[in-house]
UniProtKB/TrEMBL annotation:
GO terms for cellular component: membrane. It is found in: Membrane. The keyword Mitochondrion does not apply. It is a multi-pass membrane protein. Keywords: Membrane, Transmembrane, Transmembrane helix, Transport. Belongs to the major facilitator superfamily. SUPFAM superfamilies: MFS general substrate transporter (SSF103473). Residues 29-458 form the Major facilitator superfamily (MFS) profile domain. GO terms for molecular function: transmembrane transporter activity. This is Major facilitator superfamily (MFS) profile domain-containing protein. The chain crosses the membrane at residues 29-54, 66-84, 96-114, 120-141, 153-174, 180-201, 263-287, 321-341, 348-364, 370-392, 404-427, 433-453. Pfam families: MFS_1, Sugar_tr. It comes from the Eukaryota.
Length: 474
């Protein structure tokens, strides 16, 4: 806690939050933000389960199967910057409620898809809604004390891992009896609960400052202090003058102090999504793979002409998928322990490199247990790298363009996610060696990009406006 002498006359929002410290308010916010991630993780994890099921039931070709996954990421890419703009213009709270209701509505509708084309349309709209989910991190990070920000942002991602694991277990229970339609409907319901809980959320005090609403920002700070059982900071709130604060635009992402960082972050986010969702899809794709090498003993026809030739996921497949999904937990805990010690840049670089090593080991023709182990470790570290990127990105951009910067990075991530199904589900059936090697090569590029980032944000206060971000690159 900051000493009273430092805050006796004036204080900034960050100084106020640091003064009050982490408490009951942040705990409740962590649970709520985490629940949003859990709900979205369920919608994303279902992609690796839905495609094999529809591949068999609707007798889809490889490209059609991949398109069901790709269309979700297309929707996310198209909407990421739109949601970021809404977030910066109308507020974090309104954006989160709107995107959650939107995603839930079309998620439930997709459960009633009568054919392949309706499934594409409705899952694309689900993806459009999910594109706004990363903004929950923007709101969450803006309420956290500086010392605990990185650790909290990473730890809240435990809920993503819980959501992914829960989805696999739900599929194990629901799919054999009720099928994919029921699974889709049940997976969308948590978002409805989250949207109702969002009415408890206060608007970000940082956002209120950018809109010139000092009284509302002060009221939010007092609310945080009251819920945490701490005194409000003495003095008065001071931030840059309202006329100096303007909402960021795309060209500001390439201002001299941010240009290199933005380009490198776009590479990092693209590779993160490409590799993370790639390893998720690879897991079920390798279990289906007809080469008789990567965990399967029986060769099957990759393009079956009839339903009886199609190989659906078995109980053993779901079991091993559950094990690889649990890899998210050690990945997150490793990130928590090293991100404040090594810094954001080195943490990302280290985790990208470890992923590269273990994903390339998947090329070895080996037993199912070793394949599962390699996939487990690879997924653990790419998950950790993704979360480190989520910590770094809100820290590097100022409040007036933070949501836009995160939204633009999220949009680049969707490009990687759009490409990955064609590598993990289509190219894999032609050449598993080439498919797996692409993932290793891409993460090697991301390793270099992380090391080249010009700014280390560990211990750095979050900036408020574009004019405030005079970065020292020396």
């Amino acid at each position: 806690m900051e000493s009273l002498s430092l805050l006796s006359e004036t204080y900034t929002i960050q100084e106020a939050i640091d003064y009050i410290g982490f408490g009951k308010f942040q705990v409740k916010l962590s649970v709520l933000t985490g629940f949003a991630w859990m709900a979205d993780a369920m919608e994303m994890m279902i992609l690796s389960i839905l495609s094999p099921a529809l591949h068999c039931e609707w007798q889809l070709k490889g490209i059609q199967e991949a398109s069901i996954t790709t269309v979700v990421f297309c929707g996310m890419m198209l909407s990421s910057s739109i949601w970021g703009g809404i977030c910066d213009k109308y507020g974090r709270k309104k954006e989160l409620i709107l995107c959650s209701v939107f995603t839930c509505y079309f998620g439930i509708l997709s459960a009633f898809s009568p054919n392949y084309y309706w499934m594409l349309i409705l899952r694309g709209l689900v993806g459009f809604g999910i594109g706004g989910a990363p903004q929950s991190v923007t709101l969450y990070a803006e309420f956290l004390p500086s010392k605990s920000r990185a650790r909290c942002v990473v730890l809240v991602e435990v809920f993503w891992a819980l959501g992914a694991c829960f989805e696999v277990l739900l599929a194990l229970v629901v799919m054999p009896v009720y099928g994919w339609s029921t699974l889709l409907g049940l997976s969308a319901l948590p978002l409805l609960f989250f949207s109702l809980c969002c009415f408890w959320l206060p608007e970000s005090a940082r956002y209120d400052i950018t809109r010139g609403d000092y009284e509302k920002a002060v009221a939010t700070i007092k609310r945080i202090a009251e819920e945490n059982g701490k005194p409000a900071p003495p003095g008065r709130l001071v931030e840059p003058k309202v006329e100096e604060i303007k909402t960021g635009s795309y060209k500001d992402l390439f201002m001299p102090d941010l240009k290199v960082t933005t380009i490198l972050l776009w590479i990092i986010w693209l590779v993160c999504a490409f590799s993370y969702y790639g390893i998720v899809l690879l897991t079920t794709a390798l279990f289906e793979n007809p080469d008789g090498c990567h965990g399967t003993d029986v060769k099957t026809n990759p393009e079956p002409k009839c339903y009886l030739e199609c190989k659906t996921l078995t109980t053993d497949d779901y079991r091993d998928l559950t094990w690889t999904t649990f890899a998210e937990f050690p990945g997150l805990f490793v990130t928590v322990f090293i991100i404040d010690f090594f810094g954001r840049k080195k943490t990302m670089a280290f985790q990208f490199f470890v992923f590269t090593v273990f994903v390339l080991l998947v090329n070895i023709c080996t037993k199912r247990v070793w394949l599962t182990l390699f996939l487990f470790i690879a997924r653990a570290f790419i998950s950790g790298a993704f979360q480190a990127a989520y910590v770094y990105t809100p820290e590097i951009y100022p409040t007036s363009m933070r949501a836009l910067g995160l939204g633009a990075c999220s949009g680049m991530a969707r490009i990687g996610a759009i490409i990955t199904p064609f590598i993990a589900q289509v190219l894999l059936k032609k050449s598993s060696f080439l498919s797996i090697s692409i993932y290793g090569s891409m993460c090697l590029i991301a390793t270099i990009a992380a090391l080249l980032l010009p700014i280390e944000t560990k211990g750095r206060e979050m900036q408020v406006c574009i004019k405030c971000i005079r970065l020292k690159l020396s």
